[in-house]
Specification:
This protein has helices spanning 2-21, 27-36, 54-63, 84-89, 101-113, 130-133, 153-161, 179-189, 195-206, 217-225, 245-257, 264-276, and strands at 72-76, 93-98, 119-122, 139-145, 163-174, 231-236, 290-297. The protein is of the alpha/beta class. The protein starts with a helix and ends with a strand.
Length: 298
């Protein structure tokens, strides 16, 4: 009885926390925000695709006993296919879902170029009906990697209900905040940005130091109190690495463009900031970010 009470109290705690930190952003605005960055998301300057960071994920799920050959996989918040593409290459039957059509267009294009068959669906996981979709207990592996598609208890439970084997989830443990972000924000306040809206967005970002409404903390405790035994790995995201100022500037521009339209003058302001804050052509961030990965059997 005590364990049931602990679990119920934790669920209520998570719901209340999600209500406090969530924005009233609706699904159409979320899709629009991610569509804005879909063309460049996960791609380095010059068109080179950035590291996919799939090795650690694949090592974790394979250590848990997952064999991709012939397995049915659901990739929630798949984006441009960071995991869907390599899993399909290894023989998995992949269903990839995302709310952003631009992300899915990139996934489809890459799948065609690789001659891969992936079931790509545009939908919001926040309101998905998994019974209508035929997803309940259908998949050998369900992934949700660093995605706002899992925005609280309901969407997390919906994820678990789709698996008949393994689930994989990752999110931030500690999201370092480089002081540069605050200094750039102050500079942008002098631009033609709605200050009330910007202050609201800034407050919201502080509420999310551990991730978008969940981090790793809430889902892990949900699993622990619910009787699961997830295998957990904590990874240094590497934000202490030295970077070229032009690379970190373009990354900042991409992230800020998800919430507002940046004109050329604003983009130049951001680029000049990182250039002036660099020494000998190198920018050194002053914060570190850690992420967590979990895999568990349903």
């Amino acid at each position: 009885m005590e364990n049931n009470a602990n679990f119920e109290n934790w669920v209520n705690c998570w719901k209340e926390s999600s209500n406090r930190t969530s924005t009233p952003e609706d699904e159409s605005r979320t899709a629009e925000r991610w569509n804005k960055s879909s063309a460049t998301f996960g791609i380095k300057r010059g068109g080179e695709k950035g590291p996919k960071r799939t090795d650690n994920v694949f090592e974790l799920i394979k250590d848990a006993g997952f064999n991709p050959e012939g397995a049915k996989v659901l990739d929630i918040g798949c984006g441009p296919g960071r995991f869907s593409i390599p899993l399909a290459k290894e023989g998995a039957d992949v269903t990839a879902v995302d709310i952003a059509s631009g992300m899915l267009d990139r996934l489809r294009q890459d799948a065609r170029e690789e001659n891969l068959s992936i079931d790509v669906r545009e939908l919001s996981w926040w309101s998905a009906d998994i019974d209508e979709l035929g997803f309940r207990n259908k998949f050998d592996l369900v992934l949700a990697s660093m995605t706002p598609a899992i925005n609280g208890v309901e969407s997390f439970e919906r994820m678990i209900a789709c698996s008949r084997g393994l689930c994989y989830y990752s999110n931030f443990v500690s999201r370092g905040r480089d002081p540069a972000h605050e200094e750039i924000r102050k500079l942008l306040e002098k631009d033609n940005v709605n200050e009330d809206e910007d202050r609201s967005r800034h407050r919201h970002s502080h509420n999310h130091s551990h991730g978008p409404g969940n981090g790793l903390f809430f889902p892990f405790m949900y699993l622990y109190l619910g009787g699961y035994s997830p295998d957990v790995r904590i990874v240094n995201f590497g934000h202490r690495m030295e970077m070229k100022p032009e690379d970190v500037a373009e990354r900042a521009i991409e992230m800020m463009s998800r919430d507002r339209i940046l004109d050329d003058g604003t983009k130049d302001l951001i680029r000049n900031y990182y250039l002036n804050a660099s020494e000998d052509g190198v920018y050194k961030p002053k914060s570190a970010t850690y992420t967590g990965m979990m895999v568990w059997k349903v």
